[in-house]
Design brief:
four-stranded antiparallel β-sheet, alpha+beta, disordered N terminus
Length: 188
């Protein structure tokens, strides 16, 4: 009788396994693709650095990068990446994750609210040492100012470029921020 019980238990286990195999696997959490403005994308060479940072972000995929607009399309599953997060907190949470993965050299913010025709491009000639650290310092000096939608910096090219909301900031504020950071402006 013990053999019959053991055989019955084995048959029941096998039937359960077959029934489970017939059921479709649970769908993975829904993935989305979201476009963000990328802070720290101040030179074309920084795209490789951004891709490297994304390699340290499990569950996130860098789908596309638009350097000219300083934007990237990112794929991820919100329920996995930000469990129990409110929708309005996702940008802040993702910004923190990207900063941690990039040693605070990249961040995200929502896409600009102003239409492109309301923005102004300002180019400022600069002189100095051509290195990634110096470029980053000049970029940071202007990119964090209110009214700056995006910026680039290259001492190799001798310029800092900012796309601004002219109702909020202007060339004078950009130049003052650069000077305060120790960036030498090229004489006019």
């Amino acid at each position: 009788m013990t053999r019959h019980l053991a055989l019955a238990a084995c048959l029941l286990a096998a039937a359960t396994t077959v029934a489970a195999a017939d059921k479709p696997a649970a769908d993975p959490p829904a993935a989305v693709r979201v476009k963000y403005q990328i802070m720290g994308l101040f030179a074309p060479g920084r795209e490789a650095d951004l891709r490297e940072a994304f390699e340290r972000l499990p569950g996130f995929t860098l789908v596309a990068v638009d350097f000219e607009a300083a934007e990237a399309t990112v794929g991820y599953a919100p329920a996995v990446a930000f469990p129990r997060a409110k929708a309005e907190d996702v940008v802040k949470l993702f910004d923190a994750k990207l900063k941690a993965a990039s040693n605070n050299t990249f961040g995200v913010k929502p896409l600009p609210a102003l239409p492109p025709d309301k923005l102004q491009r300002v180019e400022i000639a600069v002189v100095g040492h051509a290195c990634k650290g110096c470029d980053f310092a000049a970029y940071e000096a202007v990119a964090r100012l209110d009214g700056v939608e995006r910026a680039t910096a290259s001492f190799k090219d001798g310029r800092v470029v900012a796309v601004i909301d002219p109702a909020t900031t202007d060339r004078g504020k950009l130049e003052a921020a650069l000077t305060k950071k120790g960036v030498q402006l090229k004489p006019k």
